[in-house]
Amino acid sequence: ELDPTIYDYDSFHSAATSAASVRKAAAKQQSVNQGPKYMNALLTAAAQRKQDQQVAREKFLQKERENEGEEFADKETFVTGAYKAQQEENQRLREEEEKKAAVEEERKRKMGGGMQGFYRNVMADSDRRHQEALEAAAEMEKRKLAGDDIADDPDTKQEKDRVAELAAKGVNITLNDEGQVADKRQLLTAGLNILASPAAPPKPSATAQKQDDSAQWNKKRDNGVRERQTRMMEQQLEESRKRALEADKEEQERLEKASKSKKTDTDISSARERFLARK
């Protein structure tokens, strides 16, 4: 017996389009709710490093106990509840890591390596999408037979609303046999079709404002420190230049005074000789 819906291409196309729209909307919502892009990975890596350090320390302590042998065998051993819980958690994490490694190894073994594994993954993904489309078509057919109203995807619904709005205004819109708009340009109105202005950016929170104020204050403080240091350096250079000028002036005065003193001594000697000659 043949399937009565084997040639129902329209239903299959609608179901496939609907499934693709659902996947796209889910991916968009996931990207919105994803949160930080790298912080989660950093936190996970930090937790993994901490776990590895604990495991390494446990192995080190275990090796020390083995080296001690029976030296402390007669001593009483105390184990706290927190340490016991930590050991159980470490054991659980090790088992999970071993399971993940086994699953990954099995997947690699089945899928193969190189381009063969790549193409096998591509074909498996294509088969999965095709199966989802078939399931969506079957579900849509069941809903049609049950008499349920099948909601259009958001884009189609928006287009129908736009057509109804323009038809109410007397605009003639050309539709094809499937009831779709033949020429999308007919949905445009005269003018520039300016979109609504974007919403104003949200105001920063109190914490962000406080951080911004703190950053500005730190920047002003650093600028003030640099300005003070610059003024101090300029003042020191000016004082050094003045001291050099004063030293040069004092040296010049000393030389002039010495020259005058030498000339005066010569004059005195000459006058004395003339005085003695007159006697």
From TrEMBL:
Biased composition (Basic and acidic residues): 63-77, 86-108, 125-147, 219-231, 238-279
Keywords: Coiled coil
Superkingdom assignment: Eukaryota
InterPro entries: NS_splicing_regulatory_protein, NSRP1_N
Region (Disordered): 63-162, 195-279
GO BP annotations, alphabetical order: regulation of alternative mRNA splicing, via spliceosome
Glycosyltransferase in keyword set: no
Domain Nuclear speckle splicing regulatory protein 1 N-terminal: 1-110
Family named by the database record: Belongs to the NSRP1 family.
Name of this chain's protein: Nuclear speckle splicing regulatory protein 1 N-terminal domain-containing protein
Species this protein is from: Aureobasidium namibiae CBS 147.97
